[in-house]
Write a structure and sequence with these properties.
By secondary structure, this protein is an all-alpha fold. The protein has helices spanning 42-68, 83-94, 97-111, 115-137, 148-154, 156-159, 165-185, 189-209, 215-227, 232-246, 256-262, 277-299. Helix 3 (97-111) runs parallel beside helix 11.
Length: 302
């Protein structure tokens, strides 16, 4: 599966405390919770995730295209003898992206000043990104037979089998929003937890039905990150085990660096200002568009 997005967390400094009551009576995040003393900002995590996502999508959108055209000679150090190893290695690198973006989604939900605006942003960019996601990663479109939109609508039925990662994140945001709403109104932790499983089940089913990236595994993963957010070591360990087991047929074992990096995060926004955050939302559809454009340019050389 393809992972992707850059700005899913409206991360603020750690002095914006989480006022919501969790379903688990655990302490606030601090060094005493088991996290390392070294810190990494949300901005640094975003940039790291952006880079590995780009590597992952280049493998899917460019490398496989050149292989299908028998033009691996255009790629340095890659030929028929090592293409499989190179491709798997690049995809393995990309497994780090989704866990980081899901983690930042949870942090963004906790700290954002407007959850509704956050959700609207995710849904808006899910719609903007979908045509580029379909053509960049689920087709070999290179502009040689028809125009962009003509090709897209001619193959729309085939593209309906997959939806981009923004849908998964939006559904995950709704799930944890419902979970907080329930926990704030039910004094009994066990009852609140049991009731929170209803929106989790319903919206995870939606993720499955629309074939969103990472499907219902992705929404459950976000739920786990939220529920265990007060203890960074437990959060990282449990969520990694879940993802590795749930998607054992994939390459999710290689997502370990994401969970290691999570333990260094202490709530700092970093160098990305609030004014720039929407530029990072745009990165997702833009980098997919550039992959399509690169294929079109390569088609003139083939």
């Amino acid at each position: 599966m393809c992972s992707g997005l850059l700005s899913f967390g409206e991360i603020t400094d750690s002095d914006h405390n989480d006022s919501s009551r969790d379903l688990r009576p655990v302490s606030r995040i601090s060094n005493s919770s088991g996290g390392p003393d070294v810190e990494i900002s949300g901005s640094a995590l975003k940039v790291m995730a952006m880079l590995v996502m780009l590597i992952d999508h280049i493998a899917v959108g460019i490398l496989l295209y050149l292989y299908s055209k028998r033009r691996l000679d255009l790629v340095p150090f890659v030929d028929d003898s090592n293409i499989e190893d190179v491709y798997i290695s690049l995809r393995a690198i990309g497994r780090t992206a989704f866990p980081i973006f899901a983690f930042l989604l949870v942090e963004g939900f906790v700290h954002t000043s407007s959850r509704l605006r956050y959700l609207i942003s995710l849904l808006t960019f899910s719609l903007i990104s979908e045509p580029f996601f379909d053509l960049a990663l689920n087709s070999r479109y290179d502009g040689t037979r028809s125009g962009f939109w003509d090709y897209y609508f001619d193959h729309k039925e085939a593209f309906d089998t997959d939806s981009n990662i923004y849908f998964t994140l939006a559904l995950g945001l709704i799930i944890i929003w419902c979970t907080e709403f329930i926990s704030d109104r039910l004094p009994d932790i066990r009852q609140a937890f049991a009731l929170s499983l209803i929106p989790l089940a319903v919206l995870s089913t939606v993720a499955y039905l629309i074939h969103s990236d990472y499907s219902f595994f992705g929404t459950i993963f976000i739920y786990i990150l939220y529920m265990l957010r007060h203890d960074r070591i437990v959060q990282a360990t449990a969520s990694y085990i879940f993802l590795a087991i749930a998607m054992f047929e994939g390459l999710e074992l290689w997502s370990f660096p994401a969970f290691f990096l999570m333990t260094f995060y202490k709530g700092k926004r970093g160098f990305i200002s609030r004014r720039l955050k929407y530029l990072f939302y745009f990165f997702y559809p833009m980098h997919l568009f550039l992959i399509i454009a690169a294929r079109c340019a390569l088609a003139t050389l083939i």
